[in-house]
TrEMBL record:
Domain Integrase DNA-binding as annotated: residue spans: 4-106
Name of the protein: Integrase DNA-binding domain-containing protein
Species the sequence originates in: marine sediment metagenome
Pfam family, any one: Arm-DNA-bind_3
GO molecular function terms noted in the UniProt entry: DNA binding
Entry annotated with the keyword Zinc-finger: no
Gene3D superfamilies tied to this protein: 1.10.150.130, Integrase, DNA-binding domain
Length: 268
C-alpha cells in the first residue's frame, strides 16, 4: 500500500479492535474502536523500541492551511501534512540519539508543573463536564454547585498560585475566612473542591502533595444532626391517618408524602 491520502483517512472505519494503516518512514495511522485516528511513529533509539503519538487526525485541520513547524507540537490535532512535518522533526531527534517520546513527556510534565491552581481547576471542571469522561462525568447540578463555590470563594485567593503554593496552612486560613463570611457549609465545600482539583492533577501524573488531605472536615465545621427517629406510636398514628376521614385532606396528602419519603410499607 502506498502513502496515505486525506481521502483514505476520512474513509477509515472503526473495527472491533484497534488496527493500523501504514504511511511512510515508520509512521502509521492507528484507528481505535471508537473511530479516533492518531498518527504514530515507531523507531529505535539507544537500543530501545519506542512509539511516539504524533497527533490526532483532524479533518478540520486538513481543510486549513498547513501550519509552520514552530506552531506544531506532538499530541495536537493535525492534518496529514502536519503529521508528516512533525514526523520529520522526530526523525531528526532520533538521528541525534534523542528520544522524541521522552522529550514529549518531559515537556508536558514541565508545563504541568508550571500550571497554576486556576489552570488545574479549569481542567478539572472541563473533564467533569465532558461526556467522554464516562463514569467520571458529574451531574450538571453537582458541577454547577462546585463551580459556584470555586468562583465565589476560591478563585480570588488561589487561581494565580502554583499548586505547590497552596499549602495546608493557606487552605485552612481560607476555610476559616469563608466560614466567617459565608457559613460552615460553604467552607466545607471549599476544602472539598480543593481536594478534588489536586486529585485531578495527581491523576494526570503530577507528583504534588494534596493540602486538603491534611485538614479534616471536622476541623472546619462540626454539624449537629437535626433529625430524630419517630417513635413506634407516632408511626402507627401516621399510618392510621391514611385510613381515616382525612385521607383526601391536605393533612392526609402530607402523610402520604411522608410515607413515600420514609419508605414505610403498610401491613396488609
Amino acid at each position: 500500500m502506498g502513502d496515505l491520502t486525506d481521502k483514505e483517512l476520512k474513509n477509515l472505519k472503526p473495527r472491533a479492535k484497534l488496527y493500523k494503516v501504514t504511511d511512510r518512514d515508520g509512521m502509521h495511522a492507528a484507528v481505535t474502536p471508537t473511530g479516533v485516528i492518531s498518527f504514530r511513529y515507531q523507531y529505535r533509539v539507544n537500543g530501545r523500541q519506542e512509539t511516539l503519538t504524533i497527533g490526532r487526525y483532524s479533518g478540520e485541520a486538513a481543510r486549513k492551511l498547513t501550519r509552520a513547524l514552530d506552531a506544531l507540537e506532538y499530541g495536537m490535532e493535525v492534518s496529514l501534512a502536519e503529521a508528516r512535518t512533525l514526523l520529520a522533526r522526530a526523525r531528526r531527534q532520533v538521528e541525534r540519539g534523542e528520544s522524541p517520546s521522552r522529550a514529549k513527556v518531559e515537556k508536558r510534565t514541565a508545563s504541568a508543573e508550571a500550571f497554576t491552581f486556576g489552570g488545574w481547576a479549569e481542567a478539572y471542571f472541563k473533564h467533569k463536564a465532558d461526556p467522554k469522561s464516562g463514569a467520571e462525568k458529574l451531574a450538571d447540578s453537582t458541577l454547577a454547585m462546585r463551580r459556584s463555590v470555586y468562583d465565589r470563594a476560591i478563585a480570588g485567593e488561589f487561581s494565580k498560585l502554583k499548586l505547590g503554593e497552596v499549602t495546608p496552612h493557606r487552605l485552612k486560613r481560607l476555610c476559616d475566612e469563608v466560614k466567617e463570611k459565608r457559613g460552615p457549609a460553604v467552607a466545607v465545600h471549599v476544602r472539598e473542591v480543593v481536594l478534588l482539583v489536586f486529585r485531578h492533577a495527581q491523576g494526570c501524573g503530577l507528583d504534588v502533595s494534596n493540602p486538603a488531605g491534611s485538614i479534616r472536615t471536622s476541623a472546619i465545621a462540626a454539624f449537629e444532626p437535626r433529625d430524630r427517629a419517630l417513635s413506634p406510636s407516632e408511626v402507627r398514628a401516621a399510618l392510621a391517618a391514611l385510613d381515616g376521614p382525612v385521607r383526601n385532606s391536605v393533612c392526609g396528602r402530607a402523610v402520604e408524602q411522608f410515607q413515600a419519603m420514609a419508605c414505610v410499607k403498610r401491613s396488609p
